[in-house]
Write a structure and sequence with these properties.
Layout: H1 2-15, H2 25-34, H3 38-47, H4 56-69, H5 72-85, H6 90-103, H7 106-123, H8 126-132, H9 137-152
């Protein structure tokens, strides 16, 4: 019954109906983020935050808050910690790739492209992603090169 209430409260929360029925730390912070109370949400999360024992949801929430507040380095650190726990999240991998590309970190950029290519090979979406996302020129060529390298076993 409690599990049902928790899922119902999360569902209502994401629909924007109101506050969670079973308030917990993650739900409380989600409401604060929705209400654009980023500093309060950050303080609440950091009060009980332990990097070693944190849940992926907490890491994503901290990354989102850091992004909204303009703390780019903190956002990147939270995304890196999240990928350690959930390596199959393509959206976060793309954000990490963007961070490395914009910061000029070529080695990090190549490593993030490799991770994206590995995940894309597993899901079979490299060519469709390169066609639908409009990746042209340098990036498309590199993604396809990484795909062939992956197929050859590198």
């Amino acid at each position: 019954m409690i599990r049902f209430l928790k899922y119902l409260s999360l569902y209502l929360l994401f629909l924007g109906v109101g506050y969670a029925l079973v308030p917990g730390q993650t739900e409380k912070v989600a409401v604060q983020i929705k209400e654009r109370k980023y500093f309060e949400a950050r303080e609440d999360l950091l009060r009980s935050f332990d990097r070693a024992n944190s849940s992926p949801e907490e890491l994503l929430q901290l990354a989102e808050i850091a992004e909204q507040l303009g703390f780019v380095e903190e956002m990147h650190q939270m995304h890196e910690a999240y990928v350690q726990q959930s390596p199959d999240d393509l959206w976060v991998l793309r954000k990490i790739e963007l961070y490395h590309r914009l910061s000029g970190d070529f080695l990090g950029y190549v490593e993030s492209l490799k991770a994206i290519a590995r995940l894309s090979l597993k899901q079979g979406i490299v060519t469709s992603c390169s066609q639908h996302c409009g990746l042209r020129g340098f990036m498309r060529k590199n993604l396809l090169n990484l795909r062939t390298m992956g197929l050859k076993g590198f």
